Amino acid sequence: MDDLRKNYLDRIAVAASEAALEEVRIAALGKKGEISLKMRELGAMEPAARAAAGAALNVLRDEIDSALRARKAALGDAALDERLAAEWLDVTLPGRPRRQGTIHPISQVWEEVTAIFADMGFAVAEGPEVESDWYNFDALNIPGHHPARAEMDTFYMHRAPDDNRPPAVLRTHTSPVQIRSMEAQGAPLRIICPGRVYRADYDQTHTPNFHQVEGLALDRDLTMANLKWVLEEFFSAYFGTRVRTRFRASHFPFTEPSAEVDIQCSFEGGTVHVGEGDGWLEVLGSGMVHPKVLKAGGIDPAKAQGFAFGMGIDRIAMLKYGIPDLRSFFESDLRWLRHYGFAALDVPTLHGGVAR
Ligand code: DAH
After folding, report:
1. Model-level pTM greater than 0.85?
2. How many domains does the chain have?
3. What is the pLDDT of residues 288-321, one digit of tens each?
């Protein structure tokens, strides 16, 4: 009995893992374990000897059992201690700083413009950047022979020689969204469409991809006066100061009458200051929507009329934030983005002041 005890208690004491411990348990207390076999032998003994040996075996079994449990708990504690030591982490250390990205000025201005027009009840409409030449030109009263088509330096989509679908273009302006919105909603209607547009042109003031925001308002009796009020409200909110506008008679195929709109500014000290001085800067085209355009959009010109305008987002971003070169918008220069970009939470709202 003493040999058995010593043997198993020694083996338990040196078992280095839960698996080794389990082997010891099976050898002693398993179905065919040494202690279990000894217990089975009790049946063949004399009653007196059996009573004594049985009691001693029970004590031994309990002793081994509790030694196993104690050792198992100790192994678990040791494993946990080891993990705690290895995986220790000082959560009070300062974090490693990571460079934050910035919001591109065009995205920022896009949101600012949207916030201001939304406040005047304009919804945001969208259209495809790959557009059919019907939406981009014909529906806007720009027929095939019209000089405006040639002037626009249009990118035409490639087509296989036997492809007879009508030509598709990269939209040269956001005006096709006027037609799509009329078709989708009819009149009355009040939308703006900020979006990307494309023209095959590249120099200091032109990039092949740029941005416009289109505006369209239709109702029974809208006039140029409504157009002028909307634009002056917009520019004043956008630049954060009262901005006077000047309307100059012009021509666009999709409006009649048409006007180019200038905003008041000074050029003092070589920089542009909007809303002061007696200089003028052209910022958009506009007019009363041409009856042919209304018809192309499925609207009866006898029942609805209204105004439209188209403005360069890049242009007004440059004016507001003093960005000198249009091309820099598209160069993805990180130093430029850090300088002119906006913090992610600098979200434009009217109550927060769209103008900064
Ligand atoms: N689509 C014109 C352009 O890209 C701009 C424009 C002029 C839009 C007059 C209009 C408008 O809606 O009425 O040059």
Report:
1. no
2. 2
3. 999 999 999 999 999 999 999 999 999 999 999 9
User: Within this chain, do residues 74 and 222 fall inside the same structural domain, yes or no?
Assistant: no
Whether residue 39 is found in the same domain as residue 120: no
340 and 215 in a single domain? The answer is yes
Residue 122 lies in a domain: yes
Q: Helices 2-14 and 18-29 meet at what angle, rounded to 10?
A: 160
- Under the banding of pLDDT at 50, 70 and 90, the label for residue 347 is confident
Which pLDDT score is estimated for 251? 95
130-132 vs 255-266, strand pairing mode: unpaired
Query: Does residue 31 have a pLDDT over 80?
Result: yes
Residue nearest to atom 12 of ligand 1 (CA): 309
Asked if the structure places residue 94 within a domain, the reply is: no
Task: Give residue-wise pLDDT tens across range 211-227.
Answer: 999 999 999 999 999 99
SS3 assignment, position 195: strand
| Residue ending a domain, choose from 51, 86, 121 | 86
Domain that holds residue 51: 2-86
* Residue located nearest, by CA, to atom 3 of ligand 1: 173
CA of 309 relative to ligand 1 center, distance in Å: 6
In 3D space, the residue among 344, 317, 322 whose CA is nearest the CA of residue 207 turns out to be 317
288: CA distance to ligand 1 center in Å? 11
Backbone φ and ψ of 349, nearest 5°: -140, 155
Question: Does the Cβ of 285 fall within 6 Å of ligand 1?
Answer: yes
14 and 154 together in one domain: no
Rounded to whole angstroms, the Cα distance separating 291 from 280 reads 31
